[in-house]
Batch of 3 targets.
Target 1
Amino acid sequence: MLEQHDNSSSERCNHLRDTVARHWASLDRGWKAALFGVLIVLFELLDVGL
């Protein structure tokens, strides 16, 4: 039963990753650059906060 649960959660994770990859591929480069910039700023703020 635990193995089945692990398999189903793994399949769900794979499906989620595929969906994210599809949406990411559909974004144009401007959006990717903007998101990347926001992530960099967030990480810098976290470093300052720590």
Note: Helices lie at 2-26, 29-49.
Target 2
Amino acid sequence: MRRWRVGTLSMGMVLIAAGALLLFAQINQVKVLNQIMKWWPAVLLLLGGEVLWYAYRGKEESPKVKYDVFSIFIIFIIVSISMVIYGLSEIGLVSQFQKMVSAQNFTQVSDQTISLDNSIKKIVVESVQDSMDVRFTKEKMIRVRSTADVTADNRGTAAEILGDSQVKALKSGDTLYLSFNSVSAGSDLGYHARIIQHTLLIPEDRAWEIHNQSSLKLYADYLSSDCVIDGSGDTEIRLGKEADVKVEVSSEEPLRLGGNVKWTVSGEENGEQGPFRGTYVWGAGMRHLNVIGAGPVDIYQMN
């Protein structure tokens, strides 16, 4: 009499179901992993049902159902894998893997506007860990554009991860303090965002101070107020024809000055003993731009 192997029917049905599921997912643009996670317990039901069915069919004292080592091993592997997948799903690792597999890279932009009243005389930008471009505007408001690399499944999710507000404003007396969201959002195993660039537009008629710890580019076509840049980051200043400014760089360490202008440097006669000071004057030097710190400073005169 023909001997049956437990698992043959179940494995055949699993293969047919898997093929149908993959075909359905391809046609309807459904995530295959989601469907597999919903239906994998059916494998256990099929195997258990097949064992009971063959045991029921075997009316004789020794039923003609063959349990060989290979069949038992395959069943053990399937059950073990099923339990592992279920456990990983319960602790959230499967969903993280889904995100990682389906993720794409997007460049996302977030714009923000901060209104100013006449009581604000000075703007202080707190320490920034990301690259920043600063420009001046005649508008009576601050505009901020933040650019980020976002990993997500689509652009809508990328916009949600980045959010709309990358700057927090705090007013104290006649001074407005700005702080930026510089820390990456999200998980390295799933969706996340990393700020790569801030562009800041500041009203030209307000005094301002920037604490720079990364890379700062200042586009000064004109200056209507005195300014301060403080920190150890790289500073690049581009002066327009109407800037009319005196730039002074001071540090306790030897200066690193560059650009396409001629600097006047003092303090080097003392060897390695500071303080060191570098000066560049364009026009009459009506406005003062003070740079404090040990970072490199480059000035480019735009003709």
Note: The chain has a mean pLDDT of 79.
Target 3
Amino acid sequence: MSKNIFQAGDRVIIDPVVANKDMNGRVFEVVRRLKVNYELTPLDGVGPGVRAQPQVLVPAPAELLAKPTSRSRRCRPAPRSG
């Protein structure tokens, strides 16, 4: 388990030892440090932000940072010609 202190903007992952299948391998950006937890936002843009205890966070490995992220975009429907 990590005892690292992170700053806003740092890229982290949930420790694979404790991550569930939905969180495993996902990279998060630290939004801010709260009293007990960190507020995180997923870099892939999928799902809401999460709060995690510092003990379960580790710096994101370079191979995960090199992967392109697919941020979800809301598209408006094309206007109908009429």
Note: Residues 11-65 form one domain.
